[in-house]
Amino acid sequence: MKETYINQLEANQTITIILLVKAKDVKSKKSGEPYLSLLLGDKTGEMDAKMWDNIEEIEGTFERDDFVKLKGLVQIYRNKPQLTIHKLRRCRDEEVDFSDYFPKTSKDVEAMFAELLEMTSTLRNPWLKQLLEVVFADQEFVVKFKQAPAAKSLHHAWLGGLLEHTVSLCKLCRLIAGHYPEIDAELLFTGAVLHDIGKTDELSYSRSFNYTSAGQLLGHMILELEFVGRKIAGIPDFPRELSVLIQHLIISHHGEYAFGSPKLPMFPEAQLLHALDNLDSKYEAMKGILQGDRNQEGDWTGHNQMFGRPLFKGSSRNGYEPDKDA
Amino acid sequence: MKETYINQLEANQTITIILLVKAKDVKSKKSGEPYLSLLLGDKTGEMDAKMWDNIEEIEGTFERDDFVKLKGLVQIYRNKPQLTIHKLRRCRDEEVDFSDYFPKTSKDVEAMFAELLEMTSTLRNPWLKQLLEVVFADQEFVVKFKQAPAAKSLHHAWLGGLLEHTVSLCKLCRLIAGHYPEIDAELLFTGAVLHDIGKTDELSYSRSFNYTSAGQLLGHMILELEFVGRKIAGIPDFPRELSVLIQHLIISHHGEYAFGSPKLPMFPEAQLLHALDNLDSKYEAMKGILQGDRNQEGDWTGHNQMFGRPLFKGSSRNGYEPDKDA
Amino acid sequence: MKETYINQLEANQTITIILLVKAKDVKSKKSGEPYLSLLLGDKTGEMDAKMWDNIEEIEGTFERDDFVKLKGLVQIYRNKPQLTIHKLRRCRDEEVDFSDYFPKTSKDVEAMFAELLEMTSTLRNPWLKQLLEVVFADQEFVVKFKQAPAAKSLHHAWLGGLLEHTVSLCKLCRLIAGHYPEIDAELLFTGAVLHDIGKTDELSYSRSFNYTSAGQLLGHMILELEFVGRKIAGIPDFPRELSVLIQHLIISHHGEYAFGSPKLPMFPEAQLLHALDNLDSKYEAMKGILQGDRNQEGDWTGHNQMFGRPLFKGSSRNGYEPDKDA
Amino acid sequence: MKETYINQLEANQTITIILLVKAKDVKSKKSGEPYLSLLLGDKTGEMDAKMWDNIEEIEGTFERDDFVKLKGLVQIYRNKPQLTIHKLRRCRDEEVDFSDYFPKTSKDVEAMFAELLEMTSTLRNPWLKQLLEVVFADQEFVVKFKQAPAAKSLHHAWLGGLLEHTVSLCKLCRLIAGHYPEIDAELLFTGAVLHDIGKTDELSYSRSFNYTSAGQLLGHMILELEFVGRKIAGIPDFPRELSVLIQHLIISHHGEYAFGSPKLPMFPEAQLLHALDNLDSKYEAMKGILQGDRNQEGDWTGHNQMFGRPLFKGSSRNGYEPDKDA
Amino acid sequence: MKETYINQLEANQTITIILLVKAKDVKSKKSGEPYLSLLLGDKTGEMDAKMWDNIEEIEGTFERDDFVKLKGLVQIYRNKPQLTIHKLRRCRDEEVDFSDYFPKTSKDVEAMFAELLEMTSTLRNPWLKQLLEVVFADQEFVVKFKQAPAAKSLHHAWLGGLLEHTVSLCKLCRLIAGHYPEIDAELLFTGAVLHDIGKTDELSYSRSFNYTSAGQLLGHMILELEFVGRKIAGIPDFPRELSVLIQHLIISHHGEYAFGSPKLPMFPEAQLLHALDNLDSKYEAMKGILQGDRNQEGDWTGHNQMFGRPLFKGSSRNGYEPDKDA
Amino acid sequence: MKETYINQLEANQTITIILLVKAKDVKSKKSGEPYLSLLLGDKTGEMDAKMWDNIEEIEGTFERDDFVKLKGLVQIYRNKPQLTIHKLRRCRDEEVDFSDYFPKTSKDVEAMFAELLEMTSTLRNPWLKQLLEVVFADQEFVVKFKQAPAAKSLHHAWLGGLLEHTVSLCKLCRLIAGHYPEIDAELLFTGAVLHDIGKTDELSYSRSFNYTSAGQLLGHMILELEFVGRKIAGIPDFPRELSVLIQHLIISHHGEYAFGSPKLPMFPEAQLLHALDNLDSKYEAMKGILQGDRNQEGDWTGHNQMFGRPLFKGSSRNGYEPDKDA
């Protein structure tokens, strides 16, 4: 763990710190001489920094998404720290602990993955079980699956977020399958496991979160169709009818054409998968917005673009919560 | 229970049967003489009937939504029975068992209502508990609440359907509150109990299902606001903040302006109430459509207007259901 | 009346002035020391102000929406005045004349209200007359009704604006009822009086204009339903059919689901109320935009967000106005 | 006036009557022989008719939209008269009184037109006055203007309906110009006179109402632009700026792109013209629907396609109309 | 070729004819006895037929989509032939010439396919060339590709229609690539060849045209992704970047989310492929509608559902066509 | 040609240069004294400039859209040049070469216009030929037609752009008319020539590109209807049917109500004109966006507002372009 984080800096300190370069610009002073303007970050925040002198030799030694070790003077402007850089050098990845730099799930990744394997192991439909086992046996995939966020922003936008959302959705599917016992619980569960796995390739997340070119051009639904298709092709005699149902679950789970689903849910398990994915994503997004705003004055967040409305922070703050007055 | 139902009739029988008048017309034969054309029904279906002679004295003795006792000859045309009426007289309501004539929940109404009271009795927030107790103590309301359908058509469109949908939603809310423990489970539960109770007055359902004038002009959300407002007014010192949250839960539960919600869900419990109400309504509607079509040939229903697409009947009919090959 | 207003300030004056605090921030100089950054206003405009020194003792003595008495030096930057504050103290409300600080209707509030009472007094339907009399007898309501704006922005967004818009709409309704004599003029008039009265509680306007929490969660239509419902409950034997019509007039007056009407106008008076409310609001909004832009160069306003288009200022400026060449 | 109208026919009469041919088909009996199937009408309704024998010589002597004199036997089927034709011959237009065959305004056409001229004569803007005088001096136009309906269906869909709607709109514009004295009342009035005059060519209405090919391909707004453009071209030195305003009033009066306005109202007079045209059209449409349904049982019309909802017939039928209990 | 087609039948003939069964119902006479009601067709049209007697032994011997040989009496009703069946037996497929029964392209299928191979042979990009060669070497695919219609209805809805539309689009792409020489003509051509090939499996067309279950659940875009993916997997070292571009061309070619494209065109070749596919489909659809209506009276088709408007038949029928007055 | 362009300026130069004034503001220094803030431009870009002293006598001598000759010192800030003005005087238009200041088509205007005349000369329909000849004989129009851009921004937004787009569209129409030989090629070509000519008056482009008041109020479609109408009126006996078709081609060419077409394409030539205009506009817009972004890092442009998505720059940069590896 790092010794100092951005949110701990105080004015007029001289510090030494390793940070991630999030943006890098060479600009001109009024005299015409170049200076370096950087946006630096760690998991606690971001900070502007300038290096005014002797930047010619250093400017070409690092790029955006590199780590750099800096020495400089901290000042505070509009409540935010700024750094005047005295010295700077690029670091190798080995010198840093990635978890100091990227937002990450607060849950235990290995425990969540084990939970998923455990749920999978109880399947009785041999084809579905075999398919998920083959997927989870793909080590290259599993490494990415444990790391990927569930979205670039909006909900579960942190390392491990894809796994966290997947496990939450799988559990919701099992609850709902208990409530509506006539549905095919295992088909629904399989859809939940697979519904977003293409995000491992749609997004890049080794440094900042972004879309890959393939992700932008095809989207995670098409990418996971490809991936699942290859896995199914490797299972002899996998029933065509079943694979069509799985493909439909995948491509219909956004539930609306406008959100990129080329087909809308056409059977109960597809309808429920869409409804529960939507419920979990929107709930976590709302929760995140309210938490991010909890230190702001007033009972209302500002107008939220995702929801198209302001959100109310006061539903659990009025003295009538039953669970707390026991 | 009746001796004969419409779906049991065979060609060339002469029968005596009591049926509900669903439509009544006096038409003219080519000769200019009047005859009677009726649409008759019981819980198993509908049937056309004609009375050709001597209708003057009988024509004014009954109306739509009356029960009539008929004697006549059954014929089959395009696979549907038709009746040529020989004799007809109006029946009093006491002569019939209503459950023979109206679709009705297959569940035990009293057991469901007891379940609701039981869930209510566990509330710890005294205001919410008192509010629901006052609601359930209103006998005039309870009688209607046990009888009303949840919709004119689409989902739970049968006597007792409102109660059935309400209980299902309450249970879903409790499952989801277990999954997201940070929410106010009792506020969500209260919203679930109250969200559709205005349907007791929005619809008329003592005979055929229809909208009342007040229901058409105001809708069930406004009607239940009025009703809940009166109940709250009777509870001394009921906190204004809490009543505003309850009112918001009610008016936002359709989740979209286009579906008549004047406000969209602005806090997590409102968001979840909308999502789960939507999930339960759409799931039951889809289930109903598939069941209604189960005897039709082919894997697909026709284009369904509510969903805007055909539905697939084959998701649980392909030999790979895990629960059945154990 | 104040001696000096913001729109009269000149560069390089040292002034003493009382202003309303519209925003308050404590920021850091490059040295790390705090300074005070304020947005101040009166009814003629807004102005930035900075206090650079000795702010520790003064910073905690006032908040947003307080009045403060300031001494300082005026400078002009980009055609707008700025203030460097030398001295500052909080004022009590009694020290100021509110009308100096808030935009206010240019019409006579008492005269408009008298006009409304006069129109009401001519009603011949005893129920409608009694209802409006009860409403206007509620002093707590009347105080707010005379003060409230008709909207947070967009149209009639000034103190007294609700009353001004209401009177204008009532007169329009009477004109139109003369044009279409077959309609129920008194029902339409009653709808016009009541259609926006919930804005007295939807908005806060004792200082800056904003939504209340109840206003945001429920909207003025639901708030006025509650209010009118209470008044009707106090009138013995008020006909249920008539109260349903009044409720429908209220909830349908926005005329579109997307604007928060849970029901659309279903009878002629409701249709006309919506059409005339829309006409008056849009006309006044357009008039306000054109007036606000009248000193800007050119025949066009910029793209206007409410109308989704630029507006033309030249329709009455081309030398062919008949009324002026007489 | 005719001696007999369709809505007076009784069963088993043999009648002689002149009717308009609204549809004409030659069909085959089972034997392969041809028979004639007609839809006939007058201003009171429509009726099916068949001619079974000897149709070869008569079949080619008349077409749709001709008048025919018929002798035959009336029968009643499903409450509607039917005619078995014994003899038929085509009539010349001179043999009939057109007003017996086409729905027509109940108002006095010449009086309405005089009212329009009178309002025009008071204009003080010389350009607008001259333009309208030139328009009303075009006898070919005036003949059509007095005859045309305001729409193929929906509102004012009867002979003289265009004039009736135009006069109503002109009066509304004058009322509203009194209410908002700052607007250019004469520009608004001119827009009202001209806004729909292209309907004289968009529709064909000498027999049944329909679109002309030019009307379908261009619409009345483009047709009236052409017409007004020709009239303006004939007035020396007509100001270009004024003609652009008039053109804008014409093309923006539908108020929405989706209703064929290529530009939306961009100044107050255009905004008001659109709002009042919309108000008058929708009000008259709603009135027509309610009147057409006044003999149907129940308080509700069926679902109305134009409004997208059922309409309530009871707003003036509940015993609380002030004007009637005086 | 058949001796007799439906559109040649005359009244009162006794005929022997082989037709395709398009619908089959067993109904009841008033007496309760069953009779057979069929819809029969060949490529020239459809015809109702009834068999009244002795249907018990024949009823189970054939199904919808079978061919039957019939003897019976023709009658004409409402200008359409009807058949009273005297004798009926099922035929084997070998007894008929399919081209007598199904609408089929008027072009030479083998010549069109050769044209496609010829265009493919000129490709210089080795990967694209190899991919298309592999596709065209798949005999199972090619058989279906030569037979499939381009749509269930709307445009090119005939056997061979898919090939016809594909060739037309390929040629349009080559014309446009000549006009905009900077684009990658071969990438665009490849997209054109592959854009609809999934229709070979989305539709069933061996008898009547319909959707397959996989077609309904996945759509032709997903089906062709699968197919193309398998072909690419068989080409060693096919560049991943190129396959992503091809996949994007396929999934974006509908150009709008609402038409099932999960991604919208993001580079020029994708934009052009969408525009030209749209142009060819809409043009051919419009041409088909106008041709289908060419014998109807009047200059206008009825309201067309696909285009949402009536179409004008007169654009080339007004005596001013330059090509004809030479 | 100018000696110096904005994109060639270097830091710390003292220069003398003539530039176009694109915006002009008088602002106040902190001292209250005025200074001049200008936005200056030539065809290579834009630059901020300040004049700090003695501006009183110079400030009133020039306006926006004037040319000024400046002497001053160049500095570079954030990679963009800034000018501190020492001397400034207004220039007369004759002192400058307009082509130094405005973006202009890279094609030869006279050659393009000759191409258009040449294509026109081959028409065989005498009416269409005569109409276009009359249009091209209008010298006042032709001067503007050779100069106008095709749009204010988005596509072909440069001097000569309207002609460039028109010629491109005419050629596309001829290619497509070859592909679909059954259409009326000359009607389509005439539509292509005329479809945007109203842009000569909708836009102002003698200096910066903008909408005229008539352009904003009426749009280019209405303006060209007027213009074409006048030309047709001058041709004796021009067939009314043909002029209606031409008017329809003009007003329907945007293809959607939302884009200002009051009628949608109703015959094949109108459908094709719309499709090809759309194809050419969107293709050129996309090409322009990609070219404007070609020096930016990465394979993607930012989110593009016109297309509603980012665009991919890599479709022709992956080493598999067939045309280049020959």
Overall mean pLDDT of chain A = 89
Structural class by sheet pairing and helices of chain A: alpha+beta
Shape of chain A: elongated
> Rg of chain A from C-alpha positions?
24 Å
Helix content of chain A: 25-40%
Question: Helix tally of chain A?
Answer: 10
Report, as a whole number of angstroms, the end-to-end distance of chain A. Answer: 40 Å
Greatest chain-chain interface?
A-B, 58 and 58 residues
Q: Tell me the series of helices and strands of chain A, N- to C-terminal.
A: EEEHEEHHHHHHEEHHH
Order of strands across the main sheet of chain A? 1-2-3-5-4
Q: Give the biggest beta sheet of chain A.
A: 5 strands, mixed, barrel
- List low-pLDDT spans of chain A: 318-326
Indicate the proportion of strand residues of chain A.
15-25%
Q: How many individual β-strands of chain A?
A: 7
Oligomer: homohexamer
Overview of the molecule:
The structure is a homohexamer of 326-residue chains. Chain A has 326 residues and is of the alpha+beta class. Chain A has ten helices and seven strands. The first copy, chain A, has helices spanning 56-59, 109-121, 126-136, 139-147, 161-179, 185-194, 199-202, 213-233, 240-252, 268-292; strands at 14-28, 34-42, 45-51, 67-77, 80-91, 203-204, 210-211. In chain A, the strands form two sheets. Chain A has a five-stranded mixed β-barrel. In chain A, α5 (161-179) crosses α10, α6 crosses α10 (268-292) and α8 (213-233) packs antiparallel against α9. Chains A and B meet through α5, α6, α9 and α10 of A and α5, α6, α9 and α10 of B.
